[in-house]
Amino acid sequence: MNVLWLQSAGCGGCTMSLLCAEGPGVFDLLKGAGISFLWHPALSQETGSEVRRILADVESGALPLDVLCVEGSILTGPKGTGKFQMLSGTGRSMLDWVLSLAPRANHVVAVGTCATYGGVTSAGGNPAGAIGVQYDGHQPGGALPARFRSKSGLPVVNVAGCPTHPDWVTETLLLLAAGELAETDLDALARPLFYAENLVHHACPKNEFYEYKASAEELSQMGCMMEHLGCVGTQASGDCNIRGWNGGGSCTRAGYPCINCTAPEFEEPNHPFTQTPKFAGIPIGLPSDMPKAWFMALASLSKAATPKRLAENAVADRVKVVPSIKSGKQ
User: Fold this and answer.
1) Residue 107: which CATH number?
2) Cα separation, 87 vs 95, whole angstroms
């Protein structure tokens, strides 16, 4: 299976994350599965006329294209022309290339939240007209129309994340190579269910604090960050705390709140990322599948039952009170 990878408007962070794949590394993993890059702007040796020849051969159909991967948002400005971002040396916009190559691919994969929904490059006034490959924020229909389907019959596969976990990218490619990724394996936002069916909250090391609503008040403290510090891990799709990053890390494991970077429009939450918006002192961002009244009743009971160990450790930057040793007598 061959892959043509285009880097559009973004920071290149998803490629940097991909290179952090471990056990095996990304090159050994893909090679072992029979997956190769026709071209990747940061990883391939071809340049200049060699790249133009590859693009021309794919566009003409002389070179079959199995997977078109797009990293970064698609710029549509000015006035829908896409000329704010030209693919160097071709005289054509990235928008034009994506519109031309996507129908020729067996599969199209948007890598990262910029490519999936617009992401950080679409924030603010968005003067460049940044959009996703098949979504514009939450709305279906981006550079490609909502009805678009690749030659395999799939919509654009949205491997969202800012950046993506390297395993999310490689696992998606492996599933496509094996013919094991169907539309029923994608969620309502076209994200692969193998990671999107989990919440960042799952396996978070702060879950004991969450259960008793023992909350951190400042960054670097050990307590749950939902009540005061903007964490939305109970609403965010991702298995970040289950599979871990780069040997086992994650945002919440490092003491920073989850900002729901796999979701459309996460980049503009309308409040600082590290502050929890509240109404009458009650956090607005409650778990997505729990009624507010139930949560508040549970929270009141939990706070009343908070062990002294958790209450003190929650507002400390290290363990101050260790678990008590249970008596041998029952």
Assistant:
1) 3.40.50.700
2) 9
CA 242 vs CA 1, 69, 203, 214, 247: distances in Å: 29, 26, 6, 22, 12
Q: How far apart are CA 123 and CA 16, in angstroms?
A: 22
Q: How many domains does the chain have?
A: 2
- Rama region for 186: left / alpha / beta (φ>0; ψ in -120 to 50; rest): beta
Residue 295 has pLDDT above 80, yes or no: no
For residue 232, give both structure tokens: 């939305």
48 Cβ contact partners less than 8 Å away, ≥ 6 residues apart? 89
Same domain, 19 and 80: yes
Q: Mark out the alpha helices in 178-286 (DSSP H runs).
A: 193-196, 207-211, 240-243
Co-location of 101 and 181 in the same domain: yes
* Structural domain for 277, as ranges: 198-316
- For residues 32 and 142, membership in a common domain is answered with yes
Find where tokens 């054509």 sit: 92
Same domain, 210 and 285: yes
Phi/psi for 156 (5° steps) reads: -60, 130
Estimate the crossing angle of helix 94-101 against helix 49-60, to 10 degrees.
Answer: 40
Provide DSSP, 241-265: HHH-BTTTB-TTTTT-----TTSTT
Q: Which of 147, 134, 67 is nearest to 106 (CA)?
A: 67
Mean pLDDT of 168-192: 97
In angstroms, the CA 209 to CA 187 distance is: 30
* Measured distance CA(42)–CA(301) in Å, rounded: 54
CB 257 within 8 A of CB 248: no
Q: What is the pLDDT of residue 294?
A: 67
pLDDT digits (tens, 9 = 90+) for 68-125: 999 999 999 999 999 999 999 999 999 999 999 999 999 999 999 999 999 999 999 9
CB under 8 Å to 127, separation ≥6 — which residues? Answer: 77
